What we know:
five-stranded mixed β-sheet, globular, binds magnesium ion
Amino acid sequence: xxLDLLHPEIQFALNSVKQAMQLAKQIQAETAGxxxxxxxxxxxxxxxxxxxxxxxxxxxxxFPNDPLVGEESAxxxxxxxxxxxxxxxxxxxxxxxxxxxxxxxxxxIDCGTGKTSQRFWTLDPIDGTRGFLRGGQxxxxxxxxxxxxxxxxxxxxPHLNTQAQPEVDANNPGAIFIAVKGKGxxxxxxxxxxxxxxxxxxxxVNPRQALILNSVxxxxxxVREFNSVMCTLGLQRTPFLMDxxxxxxxxxxxxxxxxxRSLPPKDPNYRTAIWDEAAGALLVEEAGGKMSDLYxxxxxxxxxxxxxxxxxxxxxxxxxxxxxxxxxxxxRS
Length: 333
Ligand code: AMP
Ligand code: MG
């Protein structure tokens, strides 16, 4: 199957993510390590805001009736103390949209405070902010959801190559991964849309040979449950730790076989935000893999801004899914 690059939604998604990656790379090169504290204390960078402003503005131009449900809001940027930060964000947005000023930038960021509806886009401007700050993996994640179903998902991964080898590759232009419901999943280089490779998950059926991915940030998961699953499955290969939704691209491209996110013990009510899974989940499924929650339930994107009906996430090449679910059940018992 081929990807129709002239399809309006695909064109918009590719164009937005390409420009977002360009901004992210430039901001990273110039402000590395500089983060602000969000009210929940997670690091949020100028890049998160600049990219949400960019995508908000592009969406307003292209599909003015489509809501955008994004991770950020401009609320904290409107105070006197934030003047300098807002001016920095505006400086970067202007590089792509020269008409930007502090007021329009706040308005564009707040385009992303839309509500979920029959048809909307969801954006994580920088998924894996800690990876971004450390020079690790991070991803720009954008998805189109129609009637609760993810129809299009796209990840921009500046530190992955198009084969999605999991190691950080900062010397290449970065890779884009795109999936369309029922049509397949592809990768392409961030600076060359003419060469698309279709993605296929691995054919690994033996857990002993499987490669499992995990977060670098151990506070995002349950380490005891992870170790228990490793042991039950008899996984022989050392787990590969990487940040962000880039993990889903690596599974979709067949470079790894398993990823799951258990609930952190200190935060048992944690529910995944839709922008943290939508694009990556479609990529894995369209590459032939399987997604579910920790209990095997399909991910349900029709419940507002979080996967309120699901507990954690499991992504596999499909062949190993049942074995992972059984090992998780054993870990809980
Ligand atoms: P990771 O994929 O673990 O490298 O880190 C990025 C993702 O972790 C983001 O999608 C965050 O929303 C998510 N995240 C942040 N805090 C938590 C938490 N307490 N538990 C689980 N996931 C989290
Ligand atoms: Mg995120």
